[in-house]
Amino acid sequence: MSICPCKLRHANCILAAINRIDMTELLTKETFLKKVFNFDKNTEWKYEGELPCIIDFYAEWCGPCKMVAPVLEELSDEYEGKVLIYKVNTEVEQELAAAFGVRSIPTMLFCPKEGEPQMAQGALPITEFRKLFKDVLLVEQPK
Length: 143
What we know:
Blueprint: H1 11-19, E1 25-26, H2 29-35, E2 53-58, H3 63-78, E3 84-89, H4 94-99, E4 107-111, E5 118-121, H5 126-135
Parallel strand pairs: 1-3, 2-3
Antiparallel strand pairs: 2-4, 4-5
């Protein structure tokens, strides 16, 4: 895959690609406990974040996970400042995946600021993500 859509590797296309760092954040167990939910201390759900979030449980080898990754990056740009998008590598963070009963990937955990989280499985289309952002996270699509 070329950085530049026209495949000529124009300098401005390359600079745009370099400056467009992934907006999603990879979580470890330690950062998950601080930013999402401290299941070591709490038995009842208590979201730790200031903005609603989704967590993508994925694996590097997973084809559907690779299909979802650019959708999540687009949503991260679109909903910047309204929704946080995190990723958990299930191969590395097996304890996190087990704690949430993740048995297939990709699995998404939608965490509203208030209320219980909800899970969705599979490579969802962007329209379904937007619907879940509105219905579960209570965040309207930016204009």
